[in-house]
Each structure stands twice: as C-alpha cells, then as structure tokens.
Amino acid sequence: MAPDLQPLARLLVLFGVILTAFGVVLLLIPRVPWLGRLPGDILIQRERMSFYFPLASCLLFWVVGRFRQ
C-alpha cells in the first residue's frame, strides 16, 4: 500500500468499527424492556396520530453522561 494512503485506510477501518458498534447497539436495544418506556416519558395517542417524547429517558442519559465525564 502506498504510504500516503495509510491514514485514509485507518480512518475507513475506524468508521467501519464505529458503524459495526452502532449496528450492534441497534440490535440489542429492543432487548432492554425498560429503555424508552420509563415513567415520565410522554405518549399521546389519538385516532390518526401518535406522539412520543422520551423525557425521562433523555434525562437518564443526560445524567449518566454528566457522571461519565
């Protein structure tokens, strides 16, 4: 491989690893039954409309993110 292409190759491998990890997370999310259905999440269902805002889930992720820093 040409030496000038090595940074690009490493970047592509990194993106591949990130996409793979994101795909695994998307596959595992449905197996966590309480995620996205916490008390405090807003769900409004009407005849032709449905609105969902995961307020408590967003707050939980925000708090966890603040403690990880």
Quick summary:
This protein is mainly alpha-helical and 69 residues long.
How would you explain this protein's 3D organization?
With 69 residues, the protein is mainly alpha-helical. The protein has two domains: 1-31; 37-69, no CATH class. Helices cover 54% and strands 12% of the residues. The chain contains two helices and two strands; from the N terminus they run αββα. The protein has helices spanning 6-28, 55-68; strands at 42-45, 50-53. A two-stranded antiparallel ribbon has the order 1-2. The longest helix is centred in the first third of the chain and has 23 residues, at 6-28. The radius of gyration is 19 Å and the shape is elongated. The termini are far apart.
Gyration radius, in Å: 19 Å
Work out the strand percent. 5-15%
Specify the number of helices: 2
From the spread of the alpha carbons, the general shape counts as: elongated
The domain count comes to: 2
The mean pLDDT is: 84
Q: Largest sheet at a glance? A: 2 strands, antiparallel
Helical residues, percent: 40-55%
What sequence of helices (H) and strands (E) makes up the elements? HEEH
Q: List segments where confidence is low: pLDDT < 50 over at least 5 consecutive residues.
A: none
Instruction: Give the termini separation.
Output: 39 Å
Number of strands: 2
Structural class: mainly alpha
Query: What is the strand arrangement across the widest sheet?
Result: 1-2
